[in-house]
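Sequence design from tokenized structure. All designs in this work follow the same two-part layout: the structure record, then the generated sequence. An example of the structure record is given first.
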């Protein structure tokens, strides 16, 4: 495992919140963490590009990689990547993204790639986020907005992942709204009866998006389940680095 591809059941489910907190928590554990937001839309006009999500992730991970590597494609319109690129007379080349990922992952213990929207969001003609995850050969982490409808959205996403032969390491239930509905209290139990994919944790709603983000993720996630069989290898590599620098 060289990293994770973070996807969601929809847009606005808290992928950046989760990815930022995860990057910071892994970094806190002494790992060299790489991050990518391969395509970001809603970045402003060409002369004033500001890929907010990519910059947020880079800060959390302590990355000094070139922004063009962390976020190879940045577009103005807050639309699906394929459409946003078309409006600017561009077509996204997946090989540029794969090459950027290889550059980052070769220098990091673990690399987190945040997708846009869900798995079937089009990147270019007949090429989706699911295809990109497949090309990167990274297991998925699924972020779910825990509300009414989440079970349907989750099971559809898991079926899509299976149809693309994508490994799903697990999912997290994210409380996006302070006003939890009745479904948010039953989603975890219902999903556990309809899929064998493990729940890695439940992230509570935070009144301030950036407040104690690392601590929230630290406390919410089952780290043994998240890192799986690679956990000890990552810890050993960190211990070896410390040994060489002491």
């Amino acid at each position: 495992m060289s990293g994770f591809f973070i996807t969601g059941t929809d847009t606005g489910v808290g992928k950046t919140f989760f990815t930022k907190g995860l990057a910071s928590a892994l970094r806190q554990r002494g790992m060299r963490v790489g991050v990518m937001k391969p395509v970001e839309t809603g970045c402003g006009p060409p002369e004033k590009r500001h890929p907010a999500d990519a910059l947020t992730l880079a800060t959390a991970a302590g990355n000094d990689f070139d922004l063009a590597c962390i976020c190879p494609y940045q577009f103005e319109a807050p639309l699906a990547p394929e459409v946003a690129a078309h409006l600017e007379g561009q077509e996204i080349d997946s090989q540029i993204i794969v090459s950027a990922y290889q550059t980052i992952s070769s220098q990091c213990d673990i690399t987190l790639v945040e997708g846009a929207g869900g798995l079937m969001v089009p990147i270019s003609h007949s090429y989706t986020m699911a295809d990109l995850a497949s090309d990167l050969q990274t297991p998925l982490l699924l972020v779910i907005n825990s509300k009414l409808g989440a079970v349907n959205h989750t099971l559809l996403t898991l079926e899509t992942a299976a149809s693309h032969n994508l490994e799903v390491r697990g999912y997290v239930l994210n409380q996006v709204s302070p006003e939890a509905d009745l479904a948010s209290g039953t989603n975890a139990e219902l999903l556990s009866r309809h899929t064998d994919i493990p729940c890695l944790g439940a992230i509570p709603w935070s009144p301030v998006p950036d407040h104690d983000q690392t601590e929230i993720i630290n406390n919410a996630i089952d780290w043994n389940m998240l890192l799986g069989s690679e956990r000890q290898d990552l810890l050993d590599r960190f211990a070896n680095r410390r040994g060489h620098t002491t």
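Strands lie at 3-8, 33-36, 39-40, 73-74, 110-114, 122-124, 127-128, 140-145, 168-174, 199-203. We note this feature because it recurs in several other targets discussed in the main text.
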